[in-house]
Amino acid sequence: MDINAKIHFLLNRMPELSIKSIDKISRGWDHDVIIINQSYVFRFPKKEHGLQRLLTESMLLSKLHENNLSIHVPHYELFYKEKRLVCSMHKKIDGEPLEKLEHLNSAEAAVQLGAFLTTLHNLNSEKLMQHGLKTIHTQRYWEEFYAEITSKISPFLRSSEQKEVKMIFDRFLSNSQKHMHPIVPIHGDLTGANILYHPARKNISGIIDFTDAQISDPAFDFAGFYWEHGPQFTREVLEHYHVSLPKEELFQRVSAFYGLQPVFHEWLHAANGKSDPNFEKGLDKLRRLQSLQ
């Protein structure tokens, strides 16, 4: 379905809609996104399996809406054509993607994010699994991820750098085999691109894009804080995170692996896109974060 067909479908579905502006966003891996009148966001899954994920995402969001959140999350309306899911619609949440903590009151943001993750991670995993929420980050997932790093990235690294990367993965894979960590519903991509802040109020206004939501290690949801803002802010969020889990063990998993692995995704994404992965910049940040542990 091209852009014209999508607009035609939406006008049939919402005949009262008067279109003044259309913004098309196609950079995502999973969805084509159309924003109409800077007010309504429509997400069209690019692949068949994305339709089921959209249903599951909608169910997760409906459960979150049953709680008193201080941060807005999308409220989906699902659009069908002849009983087949086509797209979702939600009202656009005001805010800008969070790039730097300097843009807001970091202490208030830590309270908001800690409370949000407390709510999300305390949702009933069993019920969400019945509605299709799965575990993606299995031991096998990480082993295959490391194998891909070894085949596509390691040849471009010096021997000493290969050993650095190997040590990070070996330690994580060995520990995850020995210790079973609790698994809970997680966002799965809680980075600045999906955290919106309000420039005037200088606080978090919303969290979007639950495409990667799954049942997994709660520590993974702190990875973006660690990689983008460092260990101090990560600990501040943890102070306002209230679950019956050992927080120091959770932080150690973040600082030893989850908070470092974004660089490997960045390298792979660049390599698969035939662009420069900028290994030196990634390695410098990796080492700097490790020195702060």
The largest β sheet comes out as: 5 strands, antiparallel
Tally of structural domains: 2
Q: What is the third-level CATH name, the topology of the largest domain?
A: Aminoglycoside 3'-phosphotransferase, Chain: A, domain 2
Structural class: alpha+beta
At CATH's second level, what is the architecture of the largest domain? Alpha-Beta Complex
Question: Which CATH top level class of the largest domain fits?
Answer: Alpha Beta
Please count the beta strands (DSSP E, at least 2 residues each).
10
Describe this structure in words.
By secondary structure, the protein is α+β, with helices and mostly antiparallel strands. The protein has two domains: 3-91, 2-Layer Sandwich (Phosphorylase Kinase, domain 1); 96-291, Alpha-Beta Complex (Aminoglycoside 3'-phosphotransferase, Chain: A, domain 2), CATH 3.90.1200. It has eleven helices and ten strands. It has helices spanning 3-13, 48-65, 106-121, 125-130, 139-152, 159-178, 223-229, 231-239, 247-258, 262-272, 279-291, and strands at residues 22-25, 31-36, 40-45, 77-81, 84-91, 96-97, 184-186, 195-198, 203-207, 214-216. The strands form three sheets. It has a five-stranded antiparallel sheet with strand order 1-2-3-5-4. Strands 6-8-9 form a three-stranded antiparallel sheet, with helices on one face. Helix 3 (106-121) crosses helix 8 and helix 5 (139-152) packs antiparallel against helix 6 (159-178). The mean pLDDT is 92.
